[in-house]
Every structure is written in structure tokens, then in C-alpha cells.
Design brief:
19 helices; Hydantoin permease
């Protein structure tokens, strides 16, 4: 697994052309379906404001330090996630098998993409339905039937999946400046304009009061280890850490870029968009008298009903689903870059060839999800609740304990920020993630499969873990 010495591979020569381009690409990679599809229903199912508090803690204490570490390691090594971690390990006299941390991230990014692409195909279908005025006067039963019809239209979804993947292949195949950076520099400003428009419409025509209460009034009775596990997974999924993505993006950074400042901007922007997304969705949901804890169906079943019952609903539906599609696209091209970058530097494959190969693999696995959605649910749980936290844990241990202080000082600078970062990555992040990963997983098993755990564990897991 360690492969050939990373020293045999040249550092990346392609770089972001400007700080604005990098910030747009990085924010675009962070802002995605994690903000619009996953965050609202996850918050709704985990106590609204209580989940928000836990999520913010996870972003600040876990997500931000790991983001800084990944950018620093990427720029220091000049390689993709796997090769970068291996080269840094060898430079410290450690085993190249530490590359397992990069492999976990790379596999996680790929498998997230396999179901991410399918959901994006659904989104593309809903954009077309909104344009056609399909949601006018739609009630809950009709919306549920419409969603079932949409996802069971196997060949229709496969066609949309092929279109979406082809668009990803085209952009990633063009490279960093002409592909990733250019796409993000165009799409992200449009994204923010559309987002502001939807939010203004939602808070002026929907129920702003209930939304504010729901999002900011904590319901601590719903908080358990599962809540923390979901929050960690959501934070990592949304920001994009633990998947090798930010190490890969860091390899394209210029020496002049301030990693700490950029990381704060990117993590802050992603968190802000997640909060704002709540005000784009829940005012309309509450105004229509619908359930804010509707699970994944909140997005594809509840929202069409809400749009179908408000003035200018068709137009807002077009903007809303297009907005979500933009977010999905900027994130998916970033996730694809992780695998493409590794194939390009390790095996000498052309960027376009690597993109086509990864695209074909994604289509084949995505097709299996289209035929059996049970696989999609399982992969979502595996990547979001297990692989993402595990990847973040490995990065924290590697950057905090394996790499010397001087390696990270060269990228993050010296002083108080460095002292806080290093202490956090050594003594806070690993035990926090490890503890929540173990007990959150046990809580999930107990809740999902009604397994009766030993009394001491049941006591630790709390009152929300009922087991049998």
C-alpha cells in the first residue's frame, strides 16, 4: 500500500491563479448537499437548536483545526492525499504506511461521490419538474408519490446520472485553473445571489418566528451520543475534511496564502451557509404546517408541497432546486479531484483520462444504487458516521503526533495560534473523536437494531438510547 517513494513523483506545478479563485473553489467544495439536503433534516431529527450548538462546537473544535492541518500538509508535500502523507511521513523518518490515512480519505471521497451523484441526478429531475410547474397545488400524498415515481424511473435517473457525471468529468478534466477554479468563480457568486433571494422570500412570506425558535431554542432531551456522532459527520461532510480533499487542494496553494485566515473564512462561510439554508427552508415548511423533522424526505417531498401552496411557488422552486444543484456540482467536482489527482501523479494517467475512468466507475456503482436504494442508505451511514470521523481521527493523530512541530510551523506560522492548534490536535481532537466514534456507533446500533447493550453502556449512552 505504501507504493513507490513519493520522492519519485514531482510536486504539483498547477496552482490557483488567485486568492479569490482559491477561496471560491474551497468554499464551493465545502458548500454542497451537506448544507441543503443533509443539514436541515439532520437538525430537524436531532432537536433543532440543540443540534446546532453541538454542530458549531464540532466545527470550531474539530473541523477548523483539521482543515488547517490538511491545507498545511497539502502545501508542504505538494502532492495528493495519499502521496502527500506518505512523503511527509518519510521526511520524518516514519513508515510510508501512514499513507493509510490518505487512503481512508480517498476511498471516503469516492464512495460519498457514488451516492452524491445519484442524489444530484434527482435534483436535476426536480429542477426540470419545477420548470414545468409540476408542484402547483401538490399535497403531501401527491408529492410522496411524485418522489417515488421520480426515483423509480430507472432509465430516466440513469440518463440524468450520466449527464451530471459527464459535466463533472469535463470540468475536472480541464485542470485546476481552467476547470475547478473557473467553474467555482462563476457558480459561487451566482449561488450566493440566489441564496439571498430565496432566504428573503422565505422569511417575508413564511413563518420566521417558528424557524428562529426551532433553530435556536435547544431541545436537550433529544441529545445523545448519536447527536454528537451525527454532528461530527455533518461537520466533516459539510466542510470537506477527512476525505483527502483539502490536502489535495492545499497542494495547489501558493506560499503567500495565509492558511489560518483562509481556513477560518472557508469554515465560517460553510457554517453560515448551513445556518442560512435553514432560513431558506424552514419558514416555508412551517408556513405550510409541515413537519421540519421529515428526514431526507424534507427536501424532496416536503419542499415541493410547500412550494406548491405559496404565491410564486413555481419560480421559487426553480431557483431553490437550481441553487441546490449548483452547490452539489461545486462539491462533486472537488471530491472527484481527490481520486483524479492521485491517478494523475502516481500512474502518469492524463487528467482527462483519469477523469473519464473515475466517471465510469462512479456511473457503474451509482447505477447499482438506482436499482436498489438500500445500498445508498447504507453507504450514506458508512461514510458519514464511520469513515469521515475515522479519516479525521487519522489526520489529527498524524499531524499532531507524527509530524514535528517545525513541519507545521513552516505552513501555519509560529506563535499563539500554533500553540493552540498543536495542543488541540494532540489532546482534544483525537480523544473527542475517538470517544464519540465508539459510543455513537454503539448508540446507533442499539437504536437501529434494538440490540440490548450491557447496563453500564446503556447508562453511558443516555436516556435516548432505548435499545430493545
Amino acid at each position: 500500500m505504501a507504493g513507490a517513494p513519493a520522492g519519485d513523483i514531482s510536486r504539483k506545478t498547477d496552482n490557483w491563479s488567485s486568492r479569490f479563485g482559491f477561496i471560491m473553489a474551497a468554499v464551493g467544495s465545502s458548500v454542497g448537499l451537506g448544507n441543503f439536503w443533509r443539514f436541515p433534516y439532520t437538525a430537524g431529527e436531532n432537536g433543532g437548536g440543540a443540534f446546532i450548538v453541538v454542530y458549531l462546537i464540532c466545527v470550531l473544535v474539530l473541523g477548523l483545526p483539521i482543515l488547517m492541518a490538511e491545507y498545511g500538509m497539502g502545501r508542504k508535500s505538494g502532492h495528493s492525499a495519499v502521496e502527500g502523507i506518505q512523503s511527509l511521513a518519510r521526511s520524518e523518518g516514519r513508515s510510508g504506511y501512514w499513507g493509510i490515512a490518505g487512503w481512508i480519505g480517498t476511498f471516503t471521497s469516492f464512495f460519498i461521490l457514488t451516492f452524491y451523484m445519484v442524489i444530484s441526478a434527482w435534483l436535476l429531475s426536480f429542477v426540470m419538474q419545477a420548470i414545468g410547474g409540476r408542484f402547483s397545488g401538490m399535497d403531501a400524498a401527491a408529492s410522496g408519490a411524485n418522489f417515488e415515481k421520480t426515483i423509480s424511473n430507472t432509465f430516466g435517473v440513469l440518463g440524468l446520472l450520466a449527464i451530471f457525471i459527464s459535466a463533472n468529468v469535463f470540468i475536472v478534466g480541464r485542470g485546476v485553473k481552467a476547470g475547478l477554479e473557473k467553474a467555482a468563480s462563476i457558480l459561487m457568486p451566482l449561488f450566493f445571489i440566489m441564496l439571498v433571494g430565496v432566504v428573503l422570500f422565505a422569511i417575508t412570506t413564511g413563518d420566521f418566528g417558528k424557524t428562529a425558535s426551532f433553530l435556536f431554542k435547544p431541545d436537550w432531551d433529544k441529545v445523545s451520543f448519536t447527536t454528537f456522532l451525527e454532528a461530527i459527520g455533518q461537520a466533516f461532510f459539510s466542510i470537506g475534511v477527512g476525505v483527502g480533499l483539502m490536502i489535495t487542494y492545499g497542494a495547489y496553494l501558493s506560499p503567500e496564502t495565509n492558511i489560518t485566515r483562509s481556513s477560518v473564512i472557508i469554515a465560517g462561510s460553510d457554517t453560515l451557509v448551513a445556518m442560512i439554508a435553514g432560513f431558506a427552508i424552514f419558514p416555508i415548511v412551517f408556513a405550510a404546517g409541515l413537519d421540519p423533522a421529515g428526514g431526507p424526505g424534507l427536501f424532496f417531498v416536503t419542499m415541493p408541497v410547500a412550494f406548491g401552496g405559496i404565491p410564486m411557488g413555481n419560480l421559487i422552486a426553480v431557483v431553490f432546486f437550481s441553487l441546490s444543484l449548483f452547490a452539489a456540482f461545486t462539491s462533486s467536482i472537488s471530491l472527484m479531484e481527490v481520486s483524479v489527482s492521485w491517478l494523475e501523479e502516481r500512474h502518469g494517467v492524463t487528467r482527462l483520462g483519469a477523469s473519464v475512468g473515475i466517471g465510469i466507475g462512479l456511473f457503474m456503482i451509482g447505477s447499482a444504487y438506482v436499482f436498489s436504494l438500500n445500498y445508498l442508505d447504507w453507504i450514506d451511514f458508512l461514510t458519514g458516521s464511520i469513515m469521515l470521523p475515522l479519516g479525521g481521527l487519522m489526520i489529527a493523530i498524524f499531524s499532531g503526533w507524527v509530524l514535528s512541530r517545525n513541519v507545521m510551523v513552516s505552513e501555519l506560522g509560529d506563535g499563539e495560534v500554533m500553540n493552540i492548534w498543536r495542543f488541540t490536535m494532540r489532546w482534544v481532537v483525537p480523544p473527542f473523536i475517538g470517544f464519540i466514534l465508539v459510543f455513537g456507533f454503539l448508540d446507533k446500533i442499539q437504536d437501529a437494531y434494538h440490540v440490548q447493550l450491557p447496563g453500564v453502556l446503556t447508562g453511558l449512552l443516555g436516556p435516548n438510547s432505548t435499545g430493545g
